[in-house]
Amino acid sequence: MVQEVANDGRSEMGQRREELNKFFIGPNFDIEDYNFVNFAAEYEINPHMSIFGRIDNLTGEHYAEVFGFPNLGTAAYAGMKVRF
Q1: Where are the alpha helices (DSSP H) in the chain?
Q2: Each residue of 22-59: pLDDT tens digit?
């Protein structure tokens, strides 16, 4: 791959990156690695009715997919489906 070099010695790609970075104020942060466990199940009571449940982040892992915006802890959901 050949890159064009601008008059000031910086590559065109480097200049474009600098232009974009001025819109994103603040330093870049590395986000910690994380692992979590989700569990979901559904049980069909009869052909017209089933119950379901889900647990997200079963281990209660504290993590953030985006720096400064931590995700929820453990969350549980349950419900019933009725088909006519």
Answers
A1: 12-21
A2: 666 666 677 778 888 999 999 999 999 999 999 999 99
Q: Which residues pair with 7 in a beta bridge?
A: none
Which tokens sit at 39?
């569990």
Contact call for residues 36 and 61 (beta carbons, < 8 A): yes
Q: Is the pTM of this model over 0.90?
A: no
* Dist. CA 56–CA 40, nearest whole Å: 8
Give every CB contact of residue 37 below 8 A, 6+ residues apart in sequence.
57, 58, 59
User: In the chain, what's the furthest Cα-to-Cα distance?
Assistant: 74
